[in-house]
Amino acid sequence: MILYRSMFRVFLAIALCVSTTTVYSEDGYQLWLRYNKLTDAATINQYKAYTQGIVLEKESPTLLLARQELQLALQGLLQTKVTFSNTFQGGGIIIGTPSSSGIIASLALSDKLKATGDEGFVIVQTRVKNKPCIVISANKDIGVLYGTFHFIRLLQTQQRIENIAITSAPAIKHRILNHWDNLDRTVERGYAGFSLWDWHRLPGYIDQRYIDYARANASIGINGAVLTNVNANAQILTEPYLKKVAALANVFRPYGIKVYLTARFSAPVEIGGLSTADPLDANVKAWWKKKIDEIYTYIPDFGGFTVKANSEGQPGPQNYNRNHADGANMLAEALAPHNGIVMWRAFVYSNEVPEDRAKQAYNEFKPLDGSFAKNVLVQVKNGPIDFQPREPFHPLFGAMPKTPLMMEFQLTQEYLGFATHLVYLAPLFKECLDADTYAKGKGSTVAHVVDGSLENHSLTGIAGVANIGNDRNWTGHPFAQANWYALGRLAWNPSLSSETVAEEWIRATFTNNEKSVHTLKDMMLASREVTVQYMTPLGLHHIMGWNHHYGPGPWIKDKPRADWTSVYYHQADENGIGFNRTATGSKALLQYTPEVQKIYSSLENCPEEYLLWYHHVPWNYKMKSGRTLWDELCHRYYQGADSVRRMQQQWSTLKGIVDEERFQQVSSLISIQHQEAIWWRNACVLYFQTFSKKDIPSGLEKPDQSLSYYQSLEFPFAPGIKPKW
Ligand code: BDP
């Protein structure tokens, strides 16, 4: 019933689109699953040759979803009626597994299928009873669903399908969204409305959103959702909430998505009535074992826990003089009989140690390599500080060979202009994944650490901190959908290029008009670098507004901890600017392999995008451009802000091609982005000028406000702030 409701909406939307020749309105709800009529006649004709019908011999919940999706897509994209049947009538698309389909079992696909594991798929064009047809098959039902979505993507992006022969399997096993969602439906660092999870009305009320969410994830291969904030609330582990979680798990299951929760380490005390949460205490162990066994009575395929412990005030094993492995292994032991996993986060930095924050996770975790249980992944943020516009890769990648390390990226734009700025993050993800750790010589990329190939780990994972809320278009900014999309696609295949992913997304989300695809791709591919320029050029980092991280705040100082201030990170003084992390400074660079050290250690050779990350550099230092550091810094800020204006012009060419509603929405957002880029530029240049004591280079327009004006701005209600419990 519920599914039909959702299909009806999509049909309605499609009907509306074709019933009018003028540009129609869209609100972005359909994401990249729009299935609007294709425009290229030759392509449509080619596709029609294969759309006489869909054959699904034996149904299952997941296979039914695949069939319905395919029918929906074909009918929308080709505007023809597509029937289905459980017998082969000659031609069409056959979907299924060797065990659900006699036809598929009779085809010589077993060699190909062997290589695709539990989730991969094979798509081939072949002949059955001498009739041409397309076969989408897999070892398991979920692979058929993934294959179906892949096939649909080929159609949406107008690829040729004759002689198609695709074998695909995910490179990474656990492809997960981390929702930082609180039980009151606020979302920490969330900028797209409130949480999707309507805890109050669960389990009785199943919101259509849950189904549409699962469908969207399945379409890009995401197979896990951590439902709750890493700053966890133990209540989620109580019986009433577990029943609610179970209701969500039931919705997600046919889409191949497992649910996970965050485990608050002190739960045995808070909801269990124990006096300690010491992981080596027998009662604590017994409590968790019982709790975990109980969870599996509600959710037989529960995925496991994500844990933030001894970080930013969260309780953890160190409260009892135990280490991270003691804590992780205690939970892992109780989860193991159920095949559950622990994703133990390495985002830790001590309250006491006055050590460069960039070094602390490595210092704490590296000595523990080899001491984690088999079902533990250590989840490491992409960089050593905290999801900055640009950071080097985290030094733990390549440094813990005996431990499977899971990647944590942030989709929600906490430090990247919230859901107001257009920032396509695939280039950021790729920069990290493609970085070479040199852990086992050249080619030891972060991607090979994460996909397990470098050290032969079969337990692998990648997580994205979700940017999804209950905004009608899911992510607040229509383009932020691309970051959700990119996470899924790159988790499946980290070797895809940012460009390929962008192009797929653009064609499915906006248009197949070649010129516009080109313009949109250009905007998206440039956008991350543009943001770096107007926020944190040349390796600057963490100079955002205090706590909410909205807007510039390079002047932030005198807070409870030095590493919660901006002055700690930029270290500007009258001699220069930047954080010396080389051998003569904090020595953070020494945590990397000698090959990596060599790239960054000398001031002369350090790539300029990381200059101020690794070096404290004199204001008069001669840059590659021939300018002084001060002049170069100013130029970068100005260039960044100017580039947003260019983006604005590019977007304006889409008028009449993109539907009016999304056109207007993006136009307004880019115009705010432009104003905010100027705000960033002016505030930072004026502030750093108090140290450099130099003029803004001639030819650059002077800021129209004073530094004290920018410093006086306050945003007590900026969205996404941490809850105060
Ligand atoms: C920072 C966020 C904070 C998170 C923390 C984390 O500011 O809200 O709780 O990371 O990842 O980026 O645990």
From TrEMBL:
<dbReference type="InterPro" id="IPR011395">
    <property type="entry name" value="Glyco_hydro_67_aGlcAse"/>
</dbReference>
<comment type="similarity">
    <text>Belongs to the glycosyl hydrolase 67 family.</text>
</comment>
<comment type="subunit">
    <text>Homodimer.</text>
</comment>
<dbReference type="InterPro" id="IPR011100">
    <property type="entry name" value="Glyco_hydro_67_cat"/>
</dbReference>
<dbReference type="InterPro" id="IPR017853">
    <property type="entry name" value="GH"/>
</dbReference>
<protein>
    <recommendedName>
        <fullName>Xylan alpha-1,2-glucuronidase</fullName>
        <ecNumber>3.2.1.131</ecNumber>
    </recommendedName>
</protein>
<dbReference type="Pfam" id="PF07488">
    <property type="entry name" value="Glyco_hydro_67M"/>
</dbReference>
<keyword id="KW-0326">Glycosidase</keyword>
<dbReference type="InterPro" id="IPR029018">
    <property type="entry name" value="Hex-like_dom2"/>
</dbReference>
<keyword id="KW-0119">Carbohydrate metabolism</keyword>
<feature type="domain" description="Glycosyl hydrolase family 67 catalytic">
    <location>
        <begin position="155"/>
        <end position="474"/>
    </location>
</feature>
<keyword id="KW-0858">Xylan degradation</keyword>
<dbReference type="Pfam" id="PF03648">
    <property type="entry name" value="Glyco_hydro_67N"/>
</dbReference>
<dbReference type="InterPro" id="IPR005154">
    <property type="entry name" value="Glyco_hydro_67_aGlcAse_N"/>
</dbReference>
<dbReference type="Pfam" id="PF07477">
    <property type="entry name" value="Glyco_hydro_67C"/>
</dbReference>
<dbReference type="InterPro" id="IPR011099">
    <property type="entry name" value="Glyco_hydro_67_C"/>
</dbReference>
<dbReference type="GO" id="GO:0016787">
    <property type="term" value="F:hydrolase activity"/>
</dbReference>
<keyword id="KW-0624">Polysaccharide degradation</keyword>
<keyword id="KW-0378">Hydrolase</keyword>
<dbReference type="InterPro" id="IPR037054">
    <property type="entry name" value="A-glucoronidase_C_sf"/>
</dbReference>
<feature type="domain" description="Glycosyl hydrolase family 67 C-terminal">
    <location>
        <begin position="475"/>
        <end position="699"/>
    </location>
</feature>
<feature type="domain" description="Alpha glucuronidase N-terminal">
    <location>
        <begin position="31"/>
        <end position="151"/>
    </location>
</feature>
